[in-house]
Amino acid sequence: MNFKKGEIIVIALAVMLFLGFIFLVKPSTTGYIAYTLVSNEYNYNSSLVNFSDNQIKLIPSTTTTITTSSSNILLSAATQNEDNKLSKVNSLNNESVNVEEDEEEEILDLTFASNLENNDVISAYIKHNKDTNVKICQPSNLCPNHYANLNYDGTPKYLNFTLNLSSERNTFGIFPTSEKIKIDYVYAIHFATTTNTTTIYPSSTTIETNDIEPANISRFDYFNYSHNLNDQNIEYYYSTDSGNNWKNFTDQNISALNLTKIKIRAMLFSNGTETPIIESLSLSYSETENVILEEIYITEIKSQENLAYLVIYSDNNLSDETINIQASNLSNPEKNKIKAVEINANNILFNSAILKINYTDEELGNINESSLKFYYYNESSEIWEEKEFTLNKDGNYIESNLSHFSVYGIFGDKLNQGGSNDDGTSGGSSGGSGTSTTSSGASSSGGGDRAPSSIAPEKRTIVIQNVPQREGPKEIKLFEESKEEKKKQDIITTQAVKEIDKINYLGIYFFIALVIILYFIYHKHVKKTNSKHEKTKIKKLKNHRFKVKIK
């Protein structure tokens, strides 16, 4: 194959541009790594650090104090057989009330200013010289089930009855069971219990990772974190010697340190009233660059008579494979057929394929173009199954992605009465014959046979080199709180903004400059060549001698 000088220059320029792109941009394959959150991958004091609810925070110590207070409650009423006795029992050594034993009319009924509860006390000052049993019960009732019961030894003194109540109340009756007594003074004591809980967080503690050393790492780039300080403080450190020495993070961009192994420590500080919370920790890093060129073969097959167009993408060269596209007479009894094709191949392997079936306005006839759909024939169930497709009305074709080769067809519905489409447009794509037809001329209803008509297709295979795109740096998620359990509050988030290295800027500028320089070199060469050809023509014209014959 002979190349002209201009073509050789163009090829050389293309090669130089491609090599310059590879050298300067350095594309590489990248991915994503996520570390599963496992608490034993970290070193920390489990009595000080809570690691159980998708957060890292301090564990408080709790102290509970129970305080009991008492208050006196005075009587608001005191009656005996409906006689008012309040003045006699509302103060000490004023007068007393005689209460007879086991006499319902002699029971002293008491009403307090507020309700009494279980374990409250009724205190009564009693004077008499004989032993007896004294009960606290319901008013005006010699109840067998009393609220309190004490023995009186005949000496003037206070008896303190501790009440056994199922519900609070403020009315009671008091009486002796064997000897009469004199009651001089009565009041109640109400007890209130207060429980105080004090929560104190530890002043500080640490949590640290094990050594992190990913395979195929070129360097660590950024340390990222998200936390909620709650007016407390968190400090972050790193170690390059397995924890023997620690340094504070002065910058989250750590690419300049050129580290391939690192250990992270977080120190949480608290004033005792609240805990800071770590919600996520991560490291991003770059891998050792590895450029891989992949060859992709594109096989284009175009059938005759504008039937269909097939494009196959494969890792293998299919130029020697036999692949045929034939018209199929199979039809769908439930739909109106426009066209069907069958693709035959010898078990070839391919990545993906796109089939485009063309149709004409005459083939469309009185079928509603908007109702067209793409189907494939399932041989095992003998049923036409609908596939995802793209309909191009302007180009008069319908196409779909294929994962295997079979019989494919396009079918639609007839126009509504009056000749209007479902989408509101009138008539067909063109003045059709008024009947539904197929590419083979058979009716669209009925079964039809499988015998295809043989059509020799045009086929060509081209090869391209695919360079994997650069997706960005990899990331190690050391810890991350689940989104469902994040609290709705103001969160202080510090996230490193990734920068493009200065060398990449310089590389891009150099690449653009190289393109401009090569363009001007080529342009100057073409101009010089054209100028040379023009001078040669002029010189020939000057040296040409004309001969004139005179008859």
What report would you give on this structure?
It is a single chain. 13% of the residues lie in helices and 40% in strands. Strands 1, 3, 4, 17, 21, 33 and 34 form a seven-stranded mixed beta sheet that branches. The protein has a six-stranded antiparallel beta sheet with strand order 7-6-9-14-11-12. A six-stranded antiparallel beta sheet has the order 29-30-26-23-22-32, with no helix packed on it. The longest helix is centred in the C-terminal third of the chain and has 42 residues, at 502-543. The protein has four helices and 34 strands. The protein has helices at 5-25, 86-89, 361-364, 502-543, and strands spanning 33-34, 42-44, 49-50, 56-58, 61-73, 75-80, 83-84, 97-99, 108-116, 121-127, 132-137, 148-152, 157-162, 169-176, 181-200, 204-209, 217-228, 233-239, 247-248, 263-269, 277-287, 294-302, 308-314, 323-327, 336-345, 352-358, 373-378, 383-387, 390-392, 397-402, 407-412, 458-466, 474-480, 492-494. The protein has four domains: 5-25 and 501-543; 33-49 and 203-287; 69-196, Jelly Rolls; 294-466, Chondroitinase Ac, Chain A, domain 3, CATH 2.60.220. It is elongated and about 150 Å long.
